[in-house]
Amino acid sequence: MVHTTELSFELSEDKTIVSSEVSYYQNPNLKNKSNFLFLNGVDLELISILINGVEPNYKLVKDGLELSDLSAEFVLKINTRIHPEKNTSLNGLYQSSGNFCTQCEAHGFRQITYYLDRPDVLSVFTTHIKADFKRYPVLLSNGNLIESKPGEVTWHDPSLKPCYLFALVAGDFAVLEDAYTTLSGNEVALKIYVEAHNIDKTQFAMDSLKRSFAWDEQRFGLEYDLDVYMIVAVDDFNMGAMENKGLNIFNSTYVLANPETATDKDFINVEAVIGHEYFHNWTGNRVTCQDWFQLSLKEGLTVFRDQEFTSDLHSRSIKRIEDVNGLRTFQFAEDAGPMKHPVRPESYIEMNNFYTFTVYEKGAEVIRMIHTFLGEDGFQKGMKLYFERHDGQAVTIDNFISAMNDANDFNFDAFMTWYSQPGTPEVEIKTNYNVDSHSYCVTIKQLGEHTYYLPIRYGLLNDQGGEVDQGVLVLSERKQSYHFNNLEHEPTPSWLRGFSAPIKLKSDLTLAQRIFLIENDTDSFSRWDNVQELWLLLILKPDQIDETSLFDALENILNNVQDPSLVCEMITLPSERFIHLRVDEIDVVEVKRKREAVIDQLINRFGSLFLNIYTNLNGDDDHELTPEAVGARSLKNICLYYLTKAGKFELAYDQFNNANCMSDRLSSFNALLSVNNPYKDKAIEKFFETYKKDVQVMDKWFSAQSLSPMMSVNGIRQLMKHELFSFNTPNRLRSVVGGFTQNFVQFHNQEGYELLTEVIIKLNGSNPQIGARLVSIYNHWKRYTPELRDLQKQQLESILAIDDLSNDIFEIVHSALK
Predict the structure, then answer these.
(1) Which residue is catalytic, options 6, 105, 243, 277?
(2) Residue 277 designated active-site
(3) Rg for the chain, CA atoms, rounded
(4) Whose C-alpha in 289, 462, 643, 720 is 20 to 30 A from the C-alpha of 803?
């Protein structure tokens, strides 16, 4: 165990010297005591090592340092040399645009110095930093600044924390400063550091940070505990952001935003990610994970909290629809693939591979079910007890559940299957109405191997659309029946409202009932969910659906728009990627053809109506971020997309030239790139000339081209030769190569696969974490048509055969082939 950790950094252009002085002590609770200690360390040059002033018995081994003949307590001093300037993995200490920054979760700290790199080893950290003041005037670390002079600072963090939360930043930054006074009257200095040319795009992030402080106080009663809260934005970052105590390091994408350069979705994402990292101060930092198998303890819980934050500040129904759409598209696919795992994984080869949709998004759904069972008051009682018991500790998911149990006298034992079993549960609902007794019987059956404890939120509607009953059915057995009496007529049931459980639901709803719900249900999620099912039916099995009835219902909705955001979601078809999950064998060309055929039907039926809606909504825009304004823009722009597909290219080009916000400009740009037209190349050139100095907007420019149906493998290779393309910048690589992998018809061929494999092999030696993310695109190779199946298998085998394959990539490829 560790009492204190004192770190000293001497930063320079060609090397960095790290000196650590760590006070270790033997855990008094150990039954089998040992005088041996293993410290993690990767790519370190050991300069010197002393224990209590004397060189100890030690041995350098792969991935670490062995120490023997140790006393129960000692002070270990180690000097190491590292090379951040050569570190392309973007883990540990590395350079981004000439500035130093760190990423230590999950195992990055071992690339800085030899240490017990485990989340349950907590210590008080003091950090000294020396650097050339002219090149690096800003020197930051966790905690409070206790000593400062040009080129030399000392930071002290009084909170116990694991080393994965350590952070260091050094560089030439501009800063936006503000302050927040907590409920108890403490003033916190707020600082956002960015490169000087981006300072005009930081005010929204600052406002979002203050909203995060206020929301966590109001909703959860949680206050911040240090004198300063800092955010640093860098372009080169593998993830979205990192919650290091008091010093969050962000991917610039999730900090920089103004109406000229950021879309509505960008703004809401910036606010959500800033909130997410701030909320980690309690759910992740002050109470952290005992081991990495408990990752969802902090991530699933904090995703739930940031989802609620966005829902409370914006449109709750649209946020829910977006989250569920993402869960079904990505997490359900993960559950159906070779890397499926429980919310609490049982093993891993490379921890970075378990920062997954299952741990994050499904983990959040599990927390949401707990909230549904307990209600807001009960959930808050459980949270309060959790913090009272475990503040300053590294704990487990079981500790969290125990707090929820004990605070509410609620037994969650049967619920724990959600944490231990992989896969998506399937549930079937059948109904029967007895005309004579006026009773309605609902039988619910779990179809899979395991029995889950889950809530099904429901409503029963009469012929006029009024609710005759609503509530939550608790399913705890393989098969259960529920009876509703004294119903004059057979009701239309609305199942799984708000997506109350992360399951696949089969029901005996008729086509007529689904159309009735689309028009009449009071639950927005149910309306969207039912129309998505009918879109899938029209795309995949058109002979089984009455297209006229569906379009008549949609016409009524389009003629009487009450919630533009909801209407936009309802007339947006399921993505090709989602449709792939609903077919037995993936034929990318056939899926696209069928989806495009339904788009043509939409255009033929509603072309004039789309034009009327577009014209009415296309007025002066002050770019407010209210749900109403965001909804109006979203509905206007989905109509523009369909109108452009219908050949009204001038309309899209006019909006592109005259838009006064990025939401409208990018929507028209994407529309012009979705189909061949005389304005496409002009728009590409003008977009580039206007925004070529803006990194984040250029990511959008690259991504839009990568996703264009006219893009080819050769076109992608040309984009990768562009002066603004950088292989070592994750965002740019994701926008070009990652984007192209979602351009299914153009990517899924031998040339596309060979390009991706070249990229993955190159990343194996530079940034295997990003390489692993990209290689997972091959995870579902067995579900494709025979020709594509064989081609993907060949690529997996060729990757597996390369020398020195990283654990990140090996684990994904090996699992896919197995």
Answers:
(1) 277
(2) yes
(3) 28
(4) 720
